[in-house]
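A common beginner's mistake is to predict each chain separately and then try to dock the pieces by hand. The better habit, illustrated here, is to supply every component at once so that their relative placement is modeled jointly.
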Amino acid sequence: MSKSPLSIQRLVAVFLAGVLLLDYPLLPLFNGAGTWFGIPSLYAYLFLAWAILVALIAAAVRHRGPP
Amino acid sequence: MLSDRVVIPAALAYLGALFALAYYADRRADRGRSLIANPYIYALSLGVYATAWTFYGSVGRAAANGVGFLPIYLGPTLMMALWWMVMRKIIRISKAHRITSLADFVSSRYGKSALLAGLVTVIAVVGVIPYIALQLKAVSTSYTILVRYPEIAMPAQAAATPIAADTAFWVALVLAAFSILFGTRHLDASERHEGLVAAIALESIVKLVAFLAVGAFVTYGIFDGMGDIFGRAAASARLAPLLAPLAVTGAYSSWAWLMLLSALAIMFLPRQFQVAVVENVDEDHLRKAVWLFPLYMLAINVFVVPIAFGGVLHFGADAVDPDTFVLTLPMARQQPALALLVFIGGLSAATGMVIVETIALSTMVCNDLVMPVLLRLRPLRLAERADLSRLLLAIRRGAIVAVILLGYLYFRLAGDAYALVAIGLISFAAVAQFAPAVLGGIYWKGATRRGALAGLAAGFAVWLYTLLLPSFAKSGWLAGGFLRDGPWGVALLRPHEFLGLTGLDEITHAMLWSMIANVGAYVAVSVLTRPGVAEQAQAARFVDIFRHGSEGLAAHLWKGSASLPELNALLARFLGPARAAAAVAEFAQRRGLSAPAQLAADADFVHFAETALAGAIGGASARIMVAATVNEESLSADEVRAILDEASQLIAYSHQLERKSSELEAATAELRAANARLQELDRMKDDFVSTVTHELRTPLTSIRAFSEILHDNPDLDAAERARFLAIVIKESERLTRLINQVLDLAKLDSGRAEWTVAELDLKEVIDEAISATSQLFRDRNVALDTHFDGNAPRVHADRDRLMQVIINLLSNAVKFVAADSGRVVVALTAGAGELRVSVADNGPGIPVGDQATIFEKFRQAGDTMTAKPHGTGLGLPISRQIIEHFGGRLWVENEAGGGAKFVFALPAGRPADAAA
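With all components supplied together, the output reads:
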């Protein structure tokens, strides 16, 4: 088969994790006055989560499925 | 310093350089050495998503509400995780059907409906026009501001200037000219533009570099790093609320809707479909692009907030439009070179979008809107003209100019009322209407043409009413009461608070209603209507694209008669004679025919002709043309269903067959291996028997010979008689030993040997073995040394058997060393959990090649054909079996200074016994 079900499952898992990370109810937790290294927590968190998500996608597609 | 005499040549030189690159890439492609056939160029070309909206508008949005610009990039990032699944399917389908545009895709899925293709085209054109207006606005604004350098002044309202004096108008004309140059120099059957993609990829780099440069300048040149900007922002009454901006009512729902909206836009914007699907060289490029592209978006957004906050801190409240901060901040700090770079970056962002978007739209307008109409107008007799490719090009060029001018018109009418991002979102909401029809179309076979038509029409209508018309009303082109009180004063119909739904921003509101209408109508009508014959066929080919190549199935679904010359002529008319002939020849070759003339005008050929034609004029038009050329019998719905059922059954059977045959193959391989092993064993047994017989016969022959001599010569003298008798006895002993060993081996092999296991001290056993063989050593005058490890533990083994092994090793050693100078060393060492006994000699050693075979029965080292054998050839195999019986190992290694060293290792004690 041309599909590689394993990496598709991983990618769907990454997608769901991304929806959770980048949306209500996690965002309000960071929408406060605090700062991380001088950067407001919401901005720092969003860019960090974004970078993690990109890394997860890259990791998920790296493994080639059975040919 | 930065007058129009500098800026205009710089801009034109930049566009010219892009065109040169595109030209070069096209030439390379013609020579078969594609410049763009790699995943990095593919990922960069997806960066056409980042337009002037990203370049100028994001900063404006961030200055207004903080993180509000981000969902537009987070949504596509999430979508990228699903692209390997969804986009790969769309690409696979598009390649199989030679689909060249979004309209073509939707219409092909729903039975090649020309009506549907037209509707998609209209939605795409109308929907994208505001987006093009946005680019024109951005370029003309940035130009107008830049040429006033060093003064910073906001441009006047566009509507107030006459058209000839309006920069945006000239920008529109230049962009139209370049779009025509890039996209419609010649007609390409596959609608692929390698040069264009190369240019877009370069533009993606330029705009990223420009934006990062200005971001770094603002953050580290004007201010003292991000911490400084955010620190000052926290102290500013204007910016402090933006540090935690999501506390506003409705912020989270609008956040989520924007993510959804942009996740759909990344797939269904005509230009994204063009670069991601139509221009895709290899679907495996997705594998890298799905993380490179979000990385690109991440990089281009890092400095958005610092620039926005920096601009507000620098210019104060409302003197300068935040949409222009990217440009005005370097200007305010007297950095003309950086300002010019920013202008070029913004120009890259805008031109990339406009060029790709208008080319994609022009393909749609030509193939899916104009051609189907022209082909049906009988008075034009278009279907009979010899070469239509010039007409196709003319239509496309006209479409490009028309679309850009419509964009300009929208800019004049409504451009001033909105910020850049707000204009772009209107377009996003329009193209999101394609999502149900496309995504439903590739996963749900039950979706019908009427369902798709109803869904698209309903969603589009709601979009028109809740977003497009209000944008005119806001600009004063419709009565203001339309927005405030609703049409005819009916409050329930207010476009921004439809049916009294309040508390949502206008995009969220429009998306909510249009998606309800769109998905609702799509699903409801689909389940209420029955798909037509052609639809069922296409549905199966789209949804099951990964299960079958869709080639064979399509041919099954066609009945009728056709003529080869007519079809060839049809192809020549649209593809040009040379390319048509080449395509037909290739098809003939694929079917194993030597000449195109041998082709039969069968279902396969008709399908080939239609697909080839679809590449040039779109699926719907191709269907019309082919239907007009051949005599088709329409299949009944039952026939189609039967064929589809049969096809899917066939597929199921073939999968089963495939599985069975691979199982069979595995079983066969196992059997073959087992058989080979058996044959080997059989051969070994034969060898064994013949060797044993041979070995037995040698002593037997000499016994018999000497016995006969004694028998025939009774008067032999006593000394002679005694010598002969001694030989007979010695040979009998050898015979007995041999028979004993054969029996021994047979017992060991069959596992019937008797073992008397006891705890014993290896040292004693070795001493005993040495004394048993001492006569041999004395006979040949060979020295024997022993090295015993003092505290070697005791082992569990059979004393006699172990003795047998050691005696065997000792007698072998003494046999192979030279008499008088020979030397044998016996050592006993205790290692980790095991005891090792080694017998080393200074003989000739054992060749590496023989080290494994000497443990096989009747094998001896050296050339047994010429040299006299030194033993029975059974000693070592028996020894190894004995040692292995006690869980040990026996092997041989060569000593560094020559000579062989036989070693066996036995486990020290046995855990079970040790406890007792």
